[in-house]
Amino acid sequence: MMTSEQRVLERRETGQNVWLESATARLPTPSDGPYIYHVLDSEEAVGAAMLRELTVYADHKTGDINILLLGGRGAQAMYRLINSKIDSGELDGLLSRLNVFTQDALAPMRMANGLSFVRDFERLLGDGFFAKIKSFTPMLTETDDIETALIDYLDKLESLGGIDIFFLGFGPEAEAASHLCYIKPGSGATYKDVAGIIPISSSILEHHISKFKAGGSEISEADEAECRAASHILTLGPAAILGAKKIVQSIVDASTAPAKIPSFARMTSTELSNDAEELARQVDENPGLWIRLHPNVTSFVLPDLLAN
Length: 308
What we know:
about 300 residues; seven-stranded parallel β-sheet; 15 strands
């Protein structure tokens, strides 16, 4: 059992996966309506729409705003747009209120590795962004005790008031299943799990490396070798997704990751069960469905995701 002033997290092992669960988490009732998404005509339009979601949210809230950055292609256009506005100062008021967190990480791995999300965020957002925000808290991957480091990360996020905006992507899996963060099919994650430490599969590594290369990251042979030697993934879990005040999803890379097309079709068309046991089976088999249980989601996609 791990305790903090904010909550109690119970450690649970499911196969080789370690999950940290919260007794206060609650499972929402599935909505009867369809999954709504917005089709935009370019990656730049998606980036602008994502930034607009953040600024509108900030206009309706006082005080700090806690956001979780999305790695890979999904939010790169938004990051480039933010970077382009740094020197003008037009975003300074917003940036000064942001507590910025990452949502997953490969470990063990140097934080300076070109295949780490932190380096990619720095490349795209620029030094000016990190100088102007209120705080930045990445998941720590250079430590001999990744579990304790993950708990410290969760405690800080909770102490600041929890997640305001969770920027999420969408990953493909076999048989048109899908993942969110790195919650994989059959991982045993439940609605109580705030975060997990899971072994890395070869498919995860290939997907991670390929999406960074497609996004233009500078990756040395040494960086790639170290990444391929990583043994675990730190990931936020379903309880973190469901506990966020708002989710902004973006899917912009179906042209380079065509497996997302059938996975998205299955996620959006699945009829969620009102039976708790059957629903648990559905989301474990296809973790992309967790987003369907959140009451406040805005999803932006490109037309190529809807190709037949």
